[in-house]
Design a protein that fits this description.
The chain has about 200 residues and is an alpha/beta fold. Helix content is about 25%, strand content about 35%. It has a 7-stranded mixed sheet, sandwiched between helices. Helix 1 packs across helix 5. The structure holds glutamine. The site of glutamine has 11 residues, from helix 4. Belongs to the glutaminase PdxT/SNO family.
């Protein structure tokens, strides 16, 4: 069965995410048709949705200008799976503590933008993630930290004692960029694995 995968493409790593979704789908004997989302109208017919990293101020401005923001809110509320990474996590959050980012409030966390310090602007770390048997090679690029999580949010991974991967029901958020290695287990976890199952 083919799944229709929407990748928000107003900014950020679109083709890398598309490849990771295709690989994760293939692991489950499925095919993914990837739709790049640049304007309103395409989100509702997708089976899953990915919000990539980039620059959260720009992404939130473009989503609201194009009217895609409301469609993403409705999509997340419908219970279909969403993965939001790095700047995507910031945009998906409840509070980014920055007036220039209009958050979607589909993930009950608050975040600190660029929280991982200047000398650590970019780094890779082996991350223990709930549901994965082996550490995930996580690439952090001017990454946000999650500083508060709602009651229904499960912390899946921490780095430096701060949550960097969370699940809020059907919405998974990561501070890091899971599309930048050949490892598609985070996409698998967010989109194809049963919640709570080992991917
Ligand atoms: N620092 C960026 C922001 O605050 C996020 C960086 C990223 O997505 N790699 O929007």
């Amino acid at each position: 069965m083919t799944v229709k995968a929407g990748v928000v493409a107003v900014q950020g790593d679109v083709s890398e995410h598309a490849d990771a979704i295709r690989r994760a789908a293939a692991n489950h004997g499925r095919e993914a048709e990837v739709v790049e989302i640049r304007e309103a109208g395409a989100v509702p017919s997708c089976d899953l949705l990915l919000l990539p990293g980039g620059e959260s101020t720009a992404i939130s401005r473009l989503l609201s200008r194009e009217g895609i923001d409301e469609e993403i809110r409705a999509f997340a509320e419908s219970g279909k799976p969403v993965l939001a990474t790095c700047a995507g996590l910031i945009v998906a959050s409840r509070d980014a503590k920055d007036d220039r980012v209009e958050t979607l409030d589909v993930l009950d966390v608050s975040v600190d933008r660029n929280a991982f310090g200047r000398q650590k602007d970019s780094f890779e770390a082996p991350l223990d993630v709930t549901g994965l048997d082996e550490p995930f090679p996580a690439v952090f690029i001017r990454a946000p930290a999650i500083d508060a999580v709602g009651d229904d949010v499960a912390v899946l991974a921490e780095w430096d004692d701060r949550p960097v991967a969370v699940r809020d029901g059907n919405v998974v958020g990561t501070s890091f960029h899971p599309e930048l290695t050949a490892d598609s287990r985070i996409h698998d976890l967010a989109f194809f694995a049963e919640p709570g199952a080992s991917a």
